[in-house]
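# nightly structure sweep
# worker-07 picked up a monomer target from the shared queue
# config: single-sequence mode, recycle default, output format = structure tokens
# input follows
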Amino acid sequence: MVRRARGFTLIELMIVVAIVGILATIAIPAYQDYAVRARVSEGLALASEAKLMVVENAGVGATDYSRGYTSPISDPQKVKSIGITAATGVITITYGTKIADGSTITLTPSSGGNALPTTGAPVSSQIVWTCAGTLATKFRPADCR
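# output follows
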């Protein structure tokens, strides 16, 4: 009676290792980009409080759109700062080393197609936010590209 060995041959194992290697070279960079986009979204979520403050100040006719706002930064390696330009209401999100050190996203408010008034007149129409900045396009949210 002939006994037959069971298991994988060397060539079969090498093919499996090659396939796993190819999949890893594709998956790891995609995952890293996904992780950076998630951190960028965290910065935009933190900026929602700033957007609300600008809208409230515009509604009452304040000349300082940053009035009453304090930045909620918890991890400066992800988001360094979120600031509001007092005269215009422009929100600037500056990212830290875990994203792209010093890169920014700016959210610019407008009402009726015009910049927010600097005279203290209350804004009664809807405020629309325009997104721009120095952060690489592949890391920005879809509505910010």
